[in-house]
Amino acid sequence: MAKLIIVDDEKSIRAALRDILEYEGYEVDEAKDGEEGLDMIMRTSYDVALCDIRMPKMDGLELLQKANEASKGTQFVMISAYGNVENAVEATKRGAFDFITKPPDLNRLLITVRNAIERAKLVQETKTLKKRIYKLNEIVGESAPIQKVKETINRVAATEARVLITGANGSGKEMVAKQIHEKGSRSNQSLIEVNCAAIPGELIESELFGHEKGAFTGASARRVGKFEQADSGTLFLDEIGDMSLSAQAKVLRALQENKITRVGGDKEIKVNVRVIAATNKDLRQEIVNGNFREDLFHRLSVIVIHVPPLAERRTDIPLLTEKFLHDIATEYGSTVKELAPDAMMYLQSLPWTGNVRELRNVVERLVIMCGEEITLEDVKAYA
């Protein structure tokens, strides 16, 4: 059952609205002024607040702003006898779901409340999904090298500093990038990923910056590039060491000027993007070899995070294995299997040239092929 609160200094208005809403099956509370309303909203989860604008002690707009700053998720429908454009615009700016004038039209009121409840549900579902995604991207481990990575993430996430993530394939560079985004001020915006190694050199510029119709053969329509898609959010350039020199020059310009130009176009487009890059290559050696621009390297590497290979953090293998066993059981809808102690010791002794990604694949194979307890013989057979 949806839970609503009416915040209004007129008792007769509160009573009338309460009768209507309770008849519709909603659970309804009342507050006689903004201060009381704020106190109740802070202590109780409400789907929707029907809130007057002009009230003693604290007006409705201030209440709306304070509730939104506290991320309560309550959808505000502002109700006022002063139905002027300025009030409606100001309420919308502060995050109100809708604005209704007194006396409210009954049909409009009920439709607005239903829509606001649906919006509240979507907001809550989004928060729940983000928590699940955050857990999936959680960096598991307590070894000294991985603790250093976690500490650096916590320090840099809240800043706008560009980050270069280095490490071998499968070590978890993408997960580090996602953690930086999720812990940062742009977490409510998009994280756009580009695998520079997977895109042919002749297409990378179009992928990053977009193109205009007719810019080249096959460009039958305008395309928005990844920089524009990531505007106000984060752009993750994975395997940037594989990017062509011509694309590097354009990326450098975008970072310097916060502007891009689509392929085949001449209009400059402003972008506000935080760039995180990753590579499995030694970019300093690539600079010496003439394959990477030194000026771009310095632009990207304000903060450098090196993700250690799994062989340098073997004490984390039991924790990682346990996480993978639970994750895979959830995916398959099965019970969580257990690993025998000697089997775990054997896993820790393996070379793990494919790093965490290889370990995850091995655990999944063991879950599929083995019984409820995974033995040493099982690991030797399938690892």
Task: Describe the fold and architecture.
It comes from Spirosoma aureum. Residues 139-368 form the Sigma-54 factor interaction domain. GO terms for molecular function: ATP binding. The modification 4-aspartylphosphate is found at residue 52. InterPro entries: AAA+_ATPase, AAA_lid_NorR, CheY-like_superfamily, P-loop_NTPase, Sig_transdc_resp-reg_receiver, Sigma_54_int. This protein has 383 residues and is of the alpha/beta class. It folds into 3 domains: 3-133, Rossmann fold, CATH 3.40.50.2300; 137-308, 3-Layer(aba) Sandwich (Rossmann fold); 311-382, Helicase, Ruva Protein, domain 3, CATH 1.10.8.60. It is built from 16 helices and 14 strands. It has helices at residues 11-23, 34-43, 60-69, 85-93, 106-136, 144-156, 173-183, 204-209, 226-229, 245-257, 283-288, 294-300, 317-332, 341-349, 355-369, 376-382, and strands at 3-7, 27-31, 48-52, 75-80, 98-101, 163-166, 191-195, 234-238, 259-261, 268-270, 274-279, 303-306, 338-339, 373-374. The strands form 4 sheets. Strands 2-1-3-4-5 form a 5-stranded parallel beta sheet, with helices on both faces. A 5-stranded parallel beta sheet has the order 7-8-11-6-12. Helix 2 (34-43) packs parallel to helix 3, helix 13 packs across helix 15 and helix 14 (341-349) packs parallel to helix 16. The longest helix has 31 residues, at 106-136.
List descriptors.
383 residues, alpha/beta, Rossmann fold, Helicase, Ruva Protein, domain 3, five-stranded parallel beta sheet, 16 helices, 14 strands, 47% helix, 15% strand
